[in-house]
Amino acid sequence: MLLDSLLNLVPELNKAFLETIYMVAISLVIAIIAGLPLGILLFVTDHGLFLENTTVKSVLGFVVNMIRSIPFVILLVGLLPLTKLITGTTIGPTAASVSLSVAAIPFFARIVETSLREIDKGVIEAAVAVGATPWMIIKDVLLPEARPGIIHGITITTISLVGYSAMAGIVGGGGIGDLAIRFGYYRYDNTVMITTIVILICLVQMIQFAGDRIARLADKR
Amino acid sequence: MIEVKNLVKVYSSKKNKVIGVDNVSLTIKNGEIFGIVGYSGAGKSTLLRCINLLERPTSGQVIIDGVDLTTLNEKELRQARLKIGMIFQHFHLVSSKTVFENVAFALKAAKKSKEEIEKRVNELLEMVGLADKRDAYPSQLSGGQKQRVGIARALANEPTVLLCDEATSALDPSTTKSILALLKKINRELGITIVLITHEMEVVKDICDRIAVMQDGKVIELGTVYDIFTNPKEELTKSFIHSVLQFEIPDHLLKKRTGTIVKIQFKGEMAEEAIVSDMLQTFKVKGNILHGKIEYIQDMPLGIFIMELTGDPHEIKRAIDYISLRTNGLEVIKNVA
Ligand SMILES: Nc1ncnc2c1ncn2[C@@H]1O[C@H](COP(=O)(O)OP(=O)(O)OP(=O)(O)O)[C@@H](O)[C@H]1O
Ligand SMILES: [Mg+2]
């Protein structure tokens, strides 16, 4: 009986799982592409650093904080017009990726900024003293030195995205969360509920494990 | 030549102002090793960091080989910094890069080609004695080795000036000696002007030509190491030198002596003259040496003796006058007469 209902679920689960992976992957890529430069900018424009710029720093800092202070559920609904504009639809995993990306960019940017902050200021100063350009310092000092921290940041962001993507079910975003809401919550189907939770737990564990592994390999110190 | 003119650095925060460097002017000659000493917070690092504009002076000028660095734009300043090496107390190497890559970074900043970088880094590592550590990471090196990497990086673009902020303070005495020997070699063989901060007078005595003593952001005394050591004017300077030329006789021993006790300082050539034996032959006094030492500062001897003179008080006074006249460095520590 239990096995039967599980077997019936397999195609649905399979689709939902792939949708989740799809949403998380797209948003993660966008979060890295936009969040990494943003995080670097937040750091290097800070007081006493080589591209110190109070205006840029405070404007960026304000925008980042603003987005981060909006609860994701509200962001999800609030960004529906923007989603429609970009993807042409407001339902499905592609549509959900828009708000996921918007939420993940500032989140990841702050993580990048924090990892950069942990670099010994003296090392950066030594690079300035050597006559290096800001670009060289970013590429050859900041990024290599913060690499393990940034990789941890990617892991954390990915896991947060898995969590957020489950919420995307609320607006019909698809994915495992959507499945859990449709079957488990609305139809009181505990089998589906528990199965989805188990899948999410396994997914998060795997991401954490892989992330830690990669971070260790990247740490040359 | 480095000319620092009326340099002022004020750190202002919302609440208060801290004066780091207070109107300092000095000239550092080409090819000399110039030391800056002073207690913590005296402004040594601030002054040094103003020389390559890591710290932008509040006012004043820093002129290196005729170029006023404070007037340069960012690009020109980077260009100028290629020719000003700097090493630090805590080395500040990039921990995720190998020894080779750390040194290569400086050459990349000068836009050297791959082949040039390869050749020059090997040359530099050879010079600092780390050719075999080429592919090691900083965490695999000892403090002395890390500082050698720092030196190789600083010298990569053939600078005319090397700035050292407490470059040996994190090292043990024997490693300190070897790093100092390397700095001296760099100075003599490559003719690089070295400006170094230290709080160890031993370091000054070993390698500096001239020193500036700093207190509260000001330079309170400046001169050749030999002059400063033999004839310090300021109390602070005296206290610094004291640590190297310690010449106190314990009080309880002094009390036991019955004669007049004098401290005689011989400078340079004098140390080789037979002043004391002349004195003993000329006057009817007996001399008893309690303590004696000859230090070599900048390869010039500085002799210090503590003697007890006994005999007729009148003769002793004449003997003292005689030595004072010839050495210009006699101090009566205890007078019985
Ligand atoms: N970034 C800064 N912001 C505010 N004040 C500073 C800053 N850097 C230095 N100071 C102040 O300037 C003064 C001189 O500091 P500096 O670091 O030059 O001293 P120092 O002689 O190098 O001391 P030490 O031997 O401890 O290194 C101190 O009073 C210090 O508190
Ligand atoms: Mg200092």
UniProtKB/TrEMBL annotation, chain A:
Keywords noted in UniProt: Cell membrane, Membrane, Transmembrane, Transmembrane helix, Transport
Protein name: D-methionine transport system permease protein
Transmembrane segments: 20-44, 56-79, 85-109, 150-171, 192-211
PROSITE patterns hit by this protein: ABC_TM1
Compartment annotation: Cell membrane
Bilayer disposition of the protein: Multi-pass membrane protein
BP-aspect Gene Ontology terms: D-methionine transmembrane transport
A Gene Ontology cellular-component term: plasma membrane
Domain ABC transmembrane type-1: from-to ranges: 17-209
Family of the protein in this entry: Belongs to the binding-protein-dependent transport system permease family. CysTW subfamily.
Domain of life: Bacteria
Main localization (coarse): membrane
NCBIfam families: PRK10782.1 (NF008049)
Automatic annotation (TrEMBL), chain B:
PROSITE patterns for the chain: ABC_TRANSPORTER_1, ABC_TRANSPORTER_2
Pfam families to which the protein is assigned, alphabetical: ABC_tran, NIL
CDD domains to which the protein is assigned, alphabetical: ABC_MetN_methionine_transporter
Cellular component per GO, a single term: plasma membrane
Keywords, comma-separated and alphabetical: Amino-acid transport, ATP-binding, Cell membrane, Membrane, Nucleotide-binding, Translocase, Transport
First and last residue of the signal peptide: none
GO terms, molecular function: ATP binding; ATP hydrolysis activity
InterPro entries named in the record: AAA+_ATPase, ABC_transporter-like_ATP-bd, ABC_transporter-like_CS, ACT-like_dom_sf, MetN_ABC, MetN_ABC_transporter-like, NIL_domain, P-loop_NTPase
Name of the protein this chain belongs to: D-methionine transport system ATP-binding protein
Species annotation: [Anoxybacillus] calidus
